[in-house]
């Protein structure tokens, strides 16, 4: 998983009835875009996350085709 500042982290709900959560990546703390990430949640709360398999990075600017 690789991300840059400004990308979004989508965390899928783990149980039926729980909605997905979206957080903005405000700082990449790992090497070369790898976790952990400092994220800002929709409610304004900030936390440090090491995303698991239930997370997906939504890139702000998709990579150009090669």
From TrEMBL:
Region described as Disordered: 41-66
Domain of life: Bacteria
Domain DUF1918: 1-57
Protein name from the UniProt record: DUF1918 domain-containing protein
């Amino acid at each position: 998983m690789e991300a840059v500042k400004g990308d979004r982290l989508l965390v899928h709900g783990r149980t039926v009835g729980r909605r997905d959560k979206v957080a903005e990546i405000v700082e990449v703390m790992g090497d070369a875009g790898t976790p952990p990430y400092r994220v800002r949640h929709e409610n304004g709360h900030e936390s440090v996350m090491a995303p698991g398999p239930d997370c997906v990075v939504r890139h702000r600017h998709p990579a150009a085709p090669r």
